[in-house]
Design a protein that fits this description.
Order of helices and strands: EEEHEHEEEEEEHEEEEEEEEEEEEEE
Oligomer: single chain
CATH topology: Jelly Rolls
Number of helices: 3
CATH architecture: Sandwich
Shape: globular
Number of domains: 1
CATH class: Mainly Beta
Radius of gyration: 18 Å
Number of strands: 24
CATH superfamily: Jelly Rolls
Distance between the termini: 37 Å
Strand content: over 45%
Strand order of the largest sheet: 1-20-17-22-15-14-13
Length: 274
């Protein structure tokens, strides 16, 4: 007999882990994923989560940071300030520049291969905004093997294109999935959840999804087992349905990333995920 029972339990927080720190191209970055204690199979399809606060100096914007990617979706979400970048998704592989205002999302499908020629902040510096700061989160999401040879594409989703709704005490911005225009290579939800006055919120999730929360601000009790977590901590979701967050301090904010596992073991080779 086939078991058709749907798991409607509220999910626990299976793991709360401090993010690490590393330097990327000489700049300090908070690395929440890859995780020291959560193997890829537990967070499939999510590969990498980096958070950074950077000052747009002329030296920084003028650095040669051109590098290749392939085999995954590369998303960059601007939390504070603004930034610009470039990638080879123009006609014939020409470099296109992208301007990212606060609250905007860059969706770069790397597919069979793309140059990411960042020159981060070059446009702002050229316009006289040298010294300004931005804060952003970069995340990589695996593509199924059947999609790894697609043509690379890029899209900037402006803040007013990102659906916003109220749920419990929370304001929720739908970055991926739901009513968002962004879709990944596997069904997924990526939500920016903020509780300005604190309180609680329970987010329904398909039971087949797995993933995590990454805490950006404040503090709260995550999961049915009420494990406390605070900024730069990763909270891995246990099995079940909805995911509750309770007893949140004012200003609590987190990214909730959940998706249907692809179930294929990726081969990691620096900026390539094959």
């Amino acid at each position: 007999m086939i078991d058709t029972t749907v798991d409607v339990r509220e999910r626990d927080a299976a793991l709360v882990e401090d993010a690490g720190e590393r330097r990327i191209m000489g700049f300090p970055v908070i690395e929440a994923l890859p995780s020291a204690h959560a193997p890829y199979a537990q967070v499939d399809p999510f590969i990498l989560v980096h958070e950074a606060r950077l000052r747009l100096t002329p030296e920084f914007a003028g650095m040669d940071t051109k590098h290749p990617h392939r085999g995954f979706d590369n998303l960059w979400y601007i939390l504070e300030g603004s930034a610009s970048t470039g990638h080879s998704t123009g006609p014939g592989g020409a470099i296109e520049r992208a301007r990212l205002a606060e609250g905007s999302l860059l969706m770069l499908r790397t597919g069979r291969g793309v140059w990411h020629a960042e020159a981060v902040g070059a446009d702002e510096v050229a316009e006289g905004s040298a010294g300004s700061e931005f804060r952003g989160v970069l995340f990589w999401v695996n593509l199924p093997r059947k999609d790894k040879q697609v043509d690379p594409t890029a899209r900037v989703v402006e803040p007013d294109e990102i659906p916003v709704r109220r749920e419990g005490d929370a304001t929720i911005r739908e970055l991926v999935g739901g009513d968002s225009p962004v879709r990944l290579g596997t069904p997924a939800l990526i939500l920016d959840i903020e509780l300005p006055a604190g309180g609680q919120v329970t987010t329904p999730l398909p039971p087949e999804f797995q993933g995590f929360a990454y805490v950006l601000g404040g503090e709260a009790a995550f999961g049915a087992n009420r494990r406390r977590a605070q900024p730069t901590q990763l909270v891995v979701l246990g099995p079940g349905g909805s995911f509750p967050v309770t007893d949140a301090a004012p200003g609590t904010r987190y990214l909730l990333m959940a998706g249907q596992p692809i179930g294929e073991a990726p081969h990691f080779n620096g900026p390539f995920v094959d």
